[in-house]
Amino acid sequence: MVEWTRLLVKSCVLWWHAFMEGIFAIYKPTGITSHDVIHRLRLATHVQRIGHAGTLDPGARGVLVVAIGRTYTKQLTSLILKDKEYLVDATFGAYSSTDDSEGEKTTIPIHSVPSRDEVFRAMQTFNGELYLRPPIFSAIKIRGQRAYSIARKGKTVELPKRKSIIYLIELLDYSWPYLKFRVVTGSGVYVRSIVRALGEILKTGAYVHGLERTRVGSFTKAHAIELDVFIRNIEEA
């Protein structure tokens, strides 16, 4: 009887894990890291082998593709390489130490406010293949240390420009000093780098104050499940 019960419990655990395994589009809220999402999913599913395809900053929200289970985490490499789509809110008139609203701002004197046409033309220079410098507050490793860890200590961080591909960049709204645009990028492109570089071209400074990822490959916002809802469904299953 004891042996039968043990086998039944084991089979139920295996069934539960198999049921939970797969690739899912989770909608990450602002205020938490991508690793926080993984941690919460591990606690809810009791599955340790969980990963994601493409980090979202704590201040960003949107589609985070998550793989649960060994079979599916093996597919993450190909998913990471998929194109990604974002809706971006940017602010002109200053640079930020983190290239977003969380950093220390350096105001730039503006002698002439750029027109909508000037902003549009500047944005079009980002279409195609180009080289952009990653933000110093990023997870890129420098001699074994994350760049953001070095930057937080007040030390100088020098990151080389890296090849980036932008498939589409579309101006949606502009009213000085605010800009809203849509961008579709290749793998490994930092949206904060695009906005900083745009500020350099226009000589106005610029940083991201809102970012939403709406698509990763074929995984879209429309099919993404909010993190709390996903976890609640697991707990109620």
Describe the structure.
Strand 2 (50-53) and strand 3 form a beta hairpin. The protein has helices at residues 2-20, 34-45, 70-73, 76-80, 116-124, 147-152, 191-202, 227-236, and strands spanning 22-28, 50-53, 61-68, 84-92, 94-96, 105-107, 128-132, 141-142, 145-146, 162-175, 178-185, 206-216, 219-220, 225-226. Residues 4-18 have low confidence and may be disordered. Helix 2 (34-45) packs parallel to helix 8. The protein contains eight helices and 14 strands. Strands 1, 2, 3, 4, 7, 10, 11, 12, 13 and 14 form a ten-stranded mixed sheet that branches. Strands 5-6 form a two-stranded antiparallel sheet. With 237 residues, it is an alpha+beta fold. The chain folds into two domains: 20-81 and 218-236, 2-Layer Sandwich (Pseudouridine synthase); 84-215, Pseudouridine synthase (2-Layer Sandwich).
Question: What's the topology here?
Answer:
Blueprint: H1 2-20, E1 22-28, H2 34-45, E2 50-53, E3 61-68, H3 70-73, H4 76-80, E4 84-92, E5 94-96, E6 105-107, H5 116-124, E7 128-132, E8 141-142, E9 145-146, H6 147-152, E10 162-175, E11 178-185, H7 191-202, E12 206-216, E13 219-220, E14 225-226, H8 227-236
Parallel strand pairs: 1-14, 3-12
Antiparallel strand pairs: 1-3, 2-3, 4-11, 4-12, 5-6, 7-10, 8-9, 10-11, 12-13
